[in-house]
Each structure stands twice: as structure tokens, then as C-alpha cells.
């Protein structure tokens, strides 16, 4: 059950690389018109989402038997395909696992001032300088959700 299928992850990486290369070839061949831009944006969105899932598995050391290979491949996917820092992501992800969905400890649910949830976040955002009053326009009420759904899926609403 805990043995990773390396063929699956190889195909996963191959899919990402093919989508990235295909986007470049399409721009080179067809130019950068509106329809081409929209189409390659969809291709690159899928590639970036898939690379996020792949690097997440590598960050949890769940693909290769040696952690060194997981770290090396995570650096490749994060640094070269996504353009993000591995140290930054690991720091945020470790904080997320320590205090999952606990505001303000979990950085994954701290999405203010653009989206504010519940009763605590609007008060914190409105008291922070130039964002005062903005929460009236952006507040999302989650009272319709069951409290168990709220704690489990607060960020994914």
C-alpha cells in the first residue's frame, strides 16, 4: 500500500513537461493572438496545477525510497517548473500541518483581505490600516455550512 508506483509519477512529470513544451510550440507556431493566448493559458493552468500536486507528493517524501531524491526532484519541479522557492513552500506547509485550519496559525487559510471568513477574520482585516471597511464588500458568510464542514473545508469553499 505504501509502495509508490514510479511509472505513474514518471508519466505525471512527463505530462507536465509535454504541456509546458506544447504551450511554447503553439506560441512559436501560431503567434500570440487572443485565442492562442486563452488556449495556452488553459494548458499552462493544468500543467501548474499538476506540478503542484507532484511537488506536494515529493515534499512528503512519498515517491522515492531515498529522501535525497525526493528533495532533489521537488527542487526541480518547484524551482524550474513553478518558479517558487522550496524553502518558502516547506515552511508554509509545515505550519499548515501543525495547526491545520486554525486561524491565524494556518497560513493556507489566511487569505484576507480579499476573502474573509467567519466572525474573526473580518474584525482582524478591518482593523489593519487602509483595509478598514473593505470587509463589508468582501465578507463571505459561512453560517449556512455545518460547523463540521466549516472546520474541514474552510479554505476550499
Automatic annotation (TrEMBL):
Keywords: Fatty acid biosynthesis, Fatty acid metabolism, Lipid biosynthesis, Lipid metabolism, Membrane, Transmembrane, Transmembrane helix. GO terms for biological process: fatty acid biosynthetic process. Pfam families: FA_desaturase (PF00487). GO terms for cellular component: membrane. The chain crosses the membrane at residues 33-54. It comes from the Eukaryota. GO terms for molecular function: oxidoreductase activity, acting on paired donors, with oxidation of a pair of donors resulting in the reduction of molecular oxygen to two molecules of water. Residues 33-110 form the Fatty acid desaturase domain. PANTHER family: FATTY ACID DESATURASE 2, FATTY ACID DESATURASE 2-LIKE PROTEIN FADS2B-RELATED. This is Fatty acid desaturase domain-containing protein.
Amino acid at each position: 500500500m505504501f509502495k509508490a508506483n514510479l511509472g505513474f509519477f514518471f508519466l505525471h512529470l512527463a505530462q507536465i513537461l509535454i504541456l509546458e513544451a506544447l504551450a511554447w510550440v503553439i506560441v512559436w507556431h501560431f503567434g500570440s493572438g487572443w485565442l492562442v493566448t486563452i488556449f495556452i493559458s488553459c494548458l499552462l493552468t493544468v500543467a501548474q496545477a499538476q506540478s503542484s500536486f507532484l511537488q506536494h507528493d515529493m515534499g512528503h517524501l512519498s515517491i522515492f525510497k531515498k529522501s535525497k531524491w525526493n528533495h532533489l526532484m521537488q527542487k526541480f519541479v518547484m524551482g524550474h517548473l513553478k518558479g517558487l522557492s522550496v524553502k518558502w513552500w516547506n515552511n508554509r506547509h509545515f505550519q499548515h500541518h501543525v495547526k491545520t485550519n486554525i486561524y491565524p496559525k494556518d497560513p493556507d487559510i489566511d487569505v484576507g483581505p480579499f476573502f474573509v471568513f467567519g466572525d474573526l477574520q473580518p474584525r482582524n482585516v478591518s482593523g489593519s490600516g487602509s483595509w478598514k471597511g473593505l470587509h463589508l464588500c468582501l465578507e463571505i458568510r459561512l453560517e449556512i455550512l455545518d460547523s463540521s464542514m466549516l472546520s474541514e473545508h474552510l479554505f476550499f469553499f
